[in-house]
Amino acid sequence: MHAKVNDGKYSLWTFQRLSLCIILVELCRTHEDISTQDKDVELGGNVTLSCTPTKHYDTVQVTWQEKTDQGIENMAVYNKTGGNVLPPYKHRIRFVAPGLNDTAITFWNVSIQDNGCYYCIFNTYPLGPISGNPCLSVYDHLQTFLHYQIFDGHLNASCIATGFPRPNISWVASGAEKNEKEVTNPNGTVSVISSILVNVSSLKQQPICRVTHRREETDLKIPEAERGYLDPVVLTVLVLIIVVILVIIAVCCWRRHRKKRSGF
Q1: Are residue 112 and residue 40 in the same domain, yes or no?
Q2: pLDDT digits (tens, 9 = 90+) for 83-119
Q3: Pair 120, 179 in one domain
Q4: 31: closest CA among 131, 135, 134?
Q5: Strand 116-124 and strand 154-164: pairing?
Q6: Which of 2, 27, 90, 122 shows the smallest number of beta carbons within 10 Å?
Q7: Kind and range of the H or E element at 23?
Q8: CA 180 to chain centre
């Protein structure tokens, strides 16, 4: 009896794992059956997302959906009777490839809220729904500003970077006290404000505000003439020049003194 109970549990466990594997394989297959392409678009621009089945299906209806924080929302539907864009998307998108075997929608005057991933669902018969998952990455060009002043032996600098996605700011400045805050602008872009306060005498290299945005780095440097300190290399060169000048002056004085003594 004990052995039969164990066999029953083993069979149930095997059935559950087998069912899970079948579901996962089926999900992967449905996404592979739809050809999609992710797109990047500048804020305020226009962009088209498309979905094309890699095989021929008997499609009854095509539905576009958006994945939001609140869940999945229907955007547009196309079937044999025609297409319909649902509110609040009516003034944001339109069908540009109305059809049951190939679908595409265009976003007009893209905003930050359009950033994200979407679903194109082909309701087929008798297989059921087959979906694709194209994503839209909205960006805004980086804008930077650097302000600084040196007062009472201290450097106070503020670096401002505005863009989307959110820019990141780091400093190349030894011994600096750092403070950072961010502001979301009305159009959805983000402004990051980073400030430092540092004793000029503790600086070992030129202070740099380094901004990272969309995998690219931008360096904002405090001009050489107004840094309030000398780079170690520059300082070494100046010392050598001064030493050479002193040696030349000493040699000239020694020769003049020797000539005077020879004249007597």
Answers
A1: yes
A2: 899 988 998 999 987 778 889 999 999 999 999 999 9
A3: no
A4: 131
A5: unpaired
A6: 2
A7: helix 2-32
A8: 18
Between 22 and 165, residue with greater pLDDT: 165
State the DSSP string of 72-93: EEEEEEEETTEEEEPTTSTTTE
pLDDT greater than 50 at residue 19: no
In whole angstroms, what is the distance from residue 189 CA to residue 113 CA? 11
Total count of residues recorded for the chain: 264
Q: pTM of the full predicted structure?
A: 0.70
Asked whether residue 8 is domain-assigned, the answer is no
Task: State the pLDDT at residue 49.
Answer: 96
Identify whether the C-beta of residue 183 lies closer than 8 Å to the C-beta of residue 200: no
Q: Are 76 and 89 in contact (CB under 8 A)?
A: yes
Q: Are 162 and 189 in contact (CB under 8 A)?
A: yes
Domain extent, residue 55, equals 34-133
User: Given the structure tokens 């050809």, which residue do they identify?
Assistant: 35
CA distance 169 to 98: 45
Q: Which of 133, 159, 193 is the last residue of a domain?
A: 133
By the 8 A CB rule, do 63 and 123 touch? yes
What tens digit of pLDDT does each residue of 124-146 get?
988 899 999 999 999 999 999 99
Q: Output the CA–CA distances (angstroms, integers) from residue 231 to 69, 222, 240, in the order listed.
A: 51, 13, 14
pLDDT at 76: 95
- Same-domain check for residues 189 and 218: yes
| pLDDT classification of 224: cutoffs 50, 70, 90 | low
What strand order describes the sheet that includes 103-107?
Answer: 34-36, 47-53, 103-107, 93-95
